[in-house]
Design a protein that fits this description.
Mean pLDDT: 94
Low-confidence stretches: 1-21
Strand order of the largest sheet: 1-6-5-4-3
Largest sheet: 5 strands, antiparallel
Number of strands: 61
Radius of gyration: 27 Å
Distance between the termini: 67 Å
Shape: globular
Number of helices: 2
Oligomer: single chain
Structural class: mainly beta
Length: 790
């Protein structure tokens, strides 16, 4: 194999660096909810995500990335001082990079294509000479003192000498650049690489996507693979995987021969945690807190991490949940994984710096990729991509969204007798529900086993006799780390699904921070249309234009009409009837609660506020709405009910900005000097403080229905206390069914006898959860099915 040196021009530039000026940003000090607008990062690409955030040499180092730029881009390397001064390093070459590792022996940080020594000198691996979207760095298997591995998102693999920056190409990067060495072409399935880590004699690599059928998140895609010094990647498991790490984290394992390796991934059923312990792979499953990360292409996941934040447990991010992850996680000690809270930000990397956790986010993408919708503005996306850092006190990680989790171990699969599922997380949630459904002609007995202490010792938990389907709510006192399921006989089209949630401590009151936003039914003092417009937020209210700058000053401006053209909320795109609101997407109809105080749908209904995630705002409730390539409206989740008259909202500077304010002010309100314009500023994860999701409505309200014809699905997920009222003008049997996972897996809940003289009032059990609910009458009738969520 051939060796290649750093590009001569870049090497020369590096040698002259002491004489080069550093680009510094002005440093206003104001922050809102942990976001400092002056630290906003921009590029000229379709997306500006944060690839890595690493404290090193008394500074915080940050890189951003564009979407597919293996040979460099307008992205920068940022050096943040302890005083929060942002320095844009002149060595910046950009690219789509998220790799980072601290090399102990040479005392260098490798972040993206940069190597930074303890005196903050920066050297560059030229992306023209060593191309690829650099995704992971790992310790070398045979010469860890002098060399590191760097992998690319298209399965490329390099060895880099940390002293000379010479490199060897082992596996060629899969992009269409000319070859740079004698590396082989990889045959590994999947693409869109994410993680890289070494230990126990192997280099472990993860990718999380597939090319081609990018609209279907249920197809098999992605790969977890290994490499042992020569040849191609060898497949370990064909599913979507992201993070690969171990107890040594960003430094690599201290005892590489014996320390475990962990990898986080997922499929369409649930999260997957893989463990390499003493040369053997073990698989576990965990619930998903959000479905916005799904998608067979892998684009929606960014870089989930497992990192040390200076606490007893590590912090893991995966599918919208902050997880406690034990540093000692192994096959003999697997207890302790637990959710801390759910979150809405899109996070690429994080680290503890000084007394806070710093999250690098993917906030505002100029291109919305596959995320267009008829009820979204055609040109509501930012004019220029931008993202920011989010500084969070560690204790706040337990006070964001109440944790919920959904997932399956089998989903419409034929399962042989005595086949045992992967272990599924059983601890960490207040309420746990299991649903089993199968299409076998005869009843099937399912054995549940529990590993109570996470030591690999399984014991019987329950034996469930399932005649078609069964809904089982676990007693809150039932303890265990992991649960697994086994049918006693062959079973057809088996679904085994878990619904978990923690208590929601919120009330129905908005936090005081939201007091300046106008209440529903009132007329706002100030409103206006807003759009992220390069380095400012543009606001148009009546005949006046304003700009919000990174010093959080709202000043008069003259904004070209083209900035706002097409950014308006489309009108009359959602139908409202006497029962509820009806949303149609991709040929399917869904119903969600309505609030009569709103009358028609006013203000902004839908906008992307984090890359490939929409914020849906309808009749007083905010919802998290996954992109259409992640099953879209079928996987919507309520965040909070606000009952406010919000005019518009958009993301910029890493903040969420809202218009439609009353005359009140607090530290979240930014007003123009003339008093004619104002915006409220926070972060999207402040929205959890608006109050518990609530609502009422249903699929039918005095509706004439036909026998045996199911109603439209009506939303049930994410709500706490739930009750149902049924009325009819004649005697009917009314069947209530639930969709357990949002994909149309319908299971009977209960059948009710409804008469004209005796309506039915039913309260669902405390631990009961479902995604959607529908009703079916066994005779033609005029009926009402009304759900109340409190």
């Amino acid at each position: 194999m051939k060796l290649y040196l750093l590009a001569p021009c870049l090497l020369a530039m590096w040698l002259l660096l002491p004489s080069l000026p550093l680009v510094r940003a002005e440093q206003p000090s104001r922050q809102i909810s942990g976001v400092y607008p002056h630290l906003t990062m921009y590029n000229h690409e379709a997306e500006c995500g944060t690839g890595a955030v690493v404290p090193w040499a008394d500074r915080l180092w940050v890189i951003t990335y564009g979407p597919h730029l293996p040979q460099g881009s307008s992205d920068k390397l940022y050096e943040i001082t302890p005083e929060l001064e942002q320095i844009i390093r002149p060595e910046s070459v950009g690219g789509t990079s998220a790799n980072r590792m601290i090399h102990r022996e040479s005392q260098q940080l490798n972040i993206g294509p940069y190597l930074i020594d303890a005196e903050r000198n920066v050297r560059v691996l030229s992306p023209k000479r060593m191309p690829g979207r650099l995704t992971g760095t790992a310790r070398h298997l045979t010469d860890p003192v002098n060399k590191i591995y760097i992998a690319t998102m298209e399965e490329g693999l390099y060895t880099v000498d940390v002293n000379t920056l010479e490199f060897i190409e082992h596996i060629a990067d899969g992009n269409k650049q000319s070859r740079v060495g004698e590396g082989i072409d990889s045959k590994l399935p999947g693409y869109h690489g994410k993680g890289l880590f070494s230990g126990q004699g192997v280099l472990v690599y993860a990718n999380n996507g597939t090319k081609g059928k990018i609209q279907d998140p249920t197809i098999t895609s992605g790969a977890l693979a290994k490499w042992q010094g020569e040849g191609d990647w060898q497949l370990i498991r064909e599913n979507q995987f992201t993070e690969v790490s171990g107890p040594g984290g960003i430094y690599g394992n201290e005892h590489p021969k014996t320390d475990p390796i962990w990898s986080l991934g997922w499929d369409y059923k649930s999260l997957i945690l893989m463990l390499l312990d003493k040369g053997e792979w073990h698989a576990y499953r965990l619930p998903k807190g959000s479905h916005s990360y799904d998608g067979s292409h892998g684009w929606n996941t960014e870089w989930p991490r497992i990192r040390d934040i200076g606490e007893d447990d590590l912090l893991a991010t995966m599918h919208g949940t902050f997880w406690r992850f034990p540093k000692s996680f192994s096959a003999a000690n697997s207890a302790g994984i637990a959710p801390r809270s759910n979150y809405l930000k899109v996070i690429g990397d994080f680290a503890r710096w000084q007394d806070r956790i710093v999250f690098g986010c993917d906030d505002s993408a100029q291109k919305e990729f596959l995320n267009s919708r008829p009820f979204k503005a055609e040109r509501g996306s930012p004019v220029q991509s931008n993202s920011n850092l989010w500084f969070v006190e560690p204790e706040r990680l337990d006070r964001l969204g109440p944790a919920i989790g959904r997932g399956s171990v089998w989903l419409n699969e034929d399962v042989a007798a005595a086949a045992t599922s992967d272990p599924y997380l059983f601890s960490g949630y207040d309420h746990r529900m299991l649903v089993i459904r199968h299409a076998t002609k005869e009843p099937v007995d399912f054995a549940l086993e529990v590993d109570r202490k996470g030591n690999g010792k399984w014991e019987p938990l329950e034996q469930l006799h399932v005649d078609g389907s069964l809904i089982h709510i676990f007693d809150q006192d039932t303890e265990g780390s992991w649960v697994r399921v086994r049918p006693e006989t062959d079973a057809k089209q088996v679904c085994v699904h878990f619904h978990y949630r923690n208590e929601d401590p919120r009330t129905d009151k908005n936090d005081v921070m939201f007091a300046p936003i106008c209440r529903a039914g009132a007329e706002p003092e100030t409103g206006g249309l807003i759009r992220s417009n390069r380095k400012v937020l543009s606001l148009r209210t009546g005949e006046h234009d304003y700009e919000l700058n990174d010093r959080l000053e709202l000043v008069p401006a003259s904004t070209p009409d083209e900035v706002f053209a097409g950014a308006e909320q489309p009108k009359n795109m959602i139908t409202i009837d006497a029962a509820s609101a009806i949303v149609e997407e991709d040929g399917k109809r869904y119903r969600i609660p309505k609030h009569d105080a709103y009358g028609d749908a006013l203000g902004r209904i839908c906008r992307e506020v984090a890359t490939e995630r929409d914020l849906f705002n309808f009749h007083g409730t905010f919802y998290e709405l996954p992109a259409r390539n992640a099953q879209g409206f079928a996987k919507i989740r309520p965040i909070a009910t606000h009952n406010l008259a919000i005019d518009d909202y958009a993301s910029h500077f890493g903040l969420l900005l809202i218009t439609g304010l009353n005359e009140q002010s607090n530290d979240r309100v930014i007003r123009s000097a003339d008093g004619k314009a104002a915006v409220w500023a926070g972060v999207i994860d402040d929205l959890w403080k608006l109050g518990r999701p609530r609502g009422e409505g249903g699929p039918w309200k005095d509706s004439a229905v036909k026998a045996a014809v199911p109603s439209d699905p009506y939303l049930m997920t994410g709500y706490d206390r739930k009750s149902l009222s049924l009325e009819a003008d004649r005697d009917v049997n009314m069947l209530v069914e639930i969709d357990i996972d949002g994909t149309g897996v319908w299971v009977p809940y209960q059948s009710f006898v409804v008469t004209k003289e005796k309506p039915v009032e039913h309260r669902f059990p405390e631990g009961f959860s479902a995604y959607w609910v529908r009703l079916t009458a066994d005779a033609d009738c005029k009926t009402t099915g009304w759900f109340v969520y409190e």
